[in-house]
Amino acid sequence: MTQYIPITLSDQTLFAPYLKNAGKPGAEYSFTTLYMWAGIFHSFYRVVSYKDHSLLLVRSRRNAAAPFHFLYPMVLEGTVPMEVVRHVLEEASEGNPMVVGALTREEAALLSDSGMENLDIYEARESFDYVYYASFLATLRGKKMQPKRNHLNAFIKEHHNYKVVPITPQEIPACLEMNDAWCRIMGCRHDLELGQEACAVHRAFRGFRELGLDGLMLIADNQIVAYTLGEFYNNNTLLVHVEKAFPEYRGAYQLINREFVRYALEKYPDIEFVNREDDTGDPGLRQAKLSYNPAFLIEKYKARINHKPTP
Q: Distance between CA atoms of 254 and 240, rounded to whole angstroms?
């Protein structure tokens, strides 16, 4: 059996046609997402062949006690016949419990009808991506957005000499210093998930040029007080991977958010949407993302396979 291989930056060329053919809007199907979190989720891949199909399997597992997590098998062209999906997943599971995540409603339905035993499919609300109209985030117009504009204007009033500067490779060390300072303030040493996110941020910046990332820095008081990092995705979307601001700077988040969308619209006129990824099930983050009035959420489902049914 072909061995699983760690996801590295050099795998971007191999992944590209599979991800493009999958054509999914969810953040999990961005190579940047897969690469920057690969060290945290212990993500590996392998390419398998079955009945004239070449399939890419991506597998991860956050810790040894958890079941392996797979993305739905991807092919270079067309769609994957259910017979092939079932065979590949059953072989990959080796009879052990596994999870297939980031499923569309259609994929979830196909798996449900596949005849696989000990299969449990459920909605993964914590994984839904929040998608906004780019034109809306660029203006924050309307009564509901008045609080956002108030915060933003408070920053501008207090720091009228602020600057918004595109991130280039030369500024990356300064951005990482700011990120590490933010991490200390927010208690990363005592919060495993925040500490892991800091590692993912470092990994993303290491591949900044190769991944085709864009970013902005917000500078006030002669220091970076906020930054954001994202990419032009699926020909019509700004996918925001990272956004950080020092909490003592009121309005910094609102300003860097708006300015990044404006910057992206100028650089990529085809952008219609902004995907700000999921809320991981955190109530505060969910409320914050809902408060920006998303145009829609990208629904996702998970399938548990080979989990023994509850008596």
A: 14
Would the pTM count as exceeding 0.85? yes
On whether the CB atoms of residues 201 and 179 are closer than 8 A, the answer is: yes
pLDDT tens digits for range 5-22: 999 999 999 999 999 999
Name the residue type at position 150.
N
Same domain membership, residue 164 and residue 86 = no
b (16+ CB within 10 A) / e for 199-221: ebbebbbebbeebebbbbbbbbe
Would 283 be classed as within a structural domain? Answer: no
* Domains: count for the chain: 2
DSSP 88-142: HHHHHHTTS-EEEEEE-HHHHHHHHTTT-SSEEEEE-GGGPEEEEEHHHHTT--S
Tokens coding 63 = 């810790």
